[in-house]
Amino acid sequence: MGKEEYLIPRKFNILYADPPWKYERNKVQGAAENHYSTMSIEQLCALDVEKITDENCTLFLWSTFPFLPEALRLIKAWGFTYKTTAFVWLKQNRKNKDWFFGLGFWTRGNAEICLLATKGKPQRKSAKVSQLIISPIDKHSKKPDIVREKIVELMGDLPRIELFARQTTPGWEVFGNEVKSSVTLSEKEENYAVCNNSKGFIPHKE
After folding, report:
1. Is residue 86 part of a domain?
2. Which GO molecular-function terms appear in the entry (predicted)?
């Protein structure tokens, strides 16, 4: 990526990201690549996300359980501190209310998690937002739309952007190769060192 100017010269108080994780296992990676381009943890860490974040900012980051170590490395590389799990998505089938189960790695997978990390001292606006989301699966890897509403309820109507977005949403700026991006993100070499030196809080075992 070249060193380009941002289309919108502003800072955001809310970042919402669903990274296109690059899996090492061929079957899982092949399935993902059939639907969208993926990125390695090094490529994700290198994005200069810090340049578009306000001094007080909250990051909402989707991860699968096997990718928790990488998600924690990414949080640190982007200049945030991990706090908690914001949301747990329990997946239902599209056509009925039965639970959806993927192949998983050790046990059959159902849930996905959205981590919450902060920079500075952002303030919560509502104490009534539930962590649990029960919703049917949609097209490959698409997350429930209600998550955006929950984020705004939790943090307030602040400047916000969705990274790796697949659609545009009123009130949100977007970045991604499936939408007309509001910003461009260049690479920040220093992020490579942070990413490579940070192993997260959970040992990665295949």
Report:
1. yes
2. methyltransferase activity
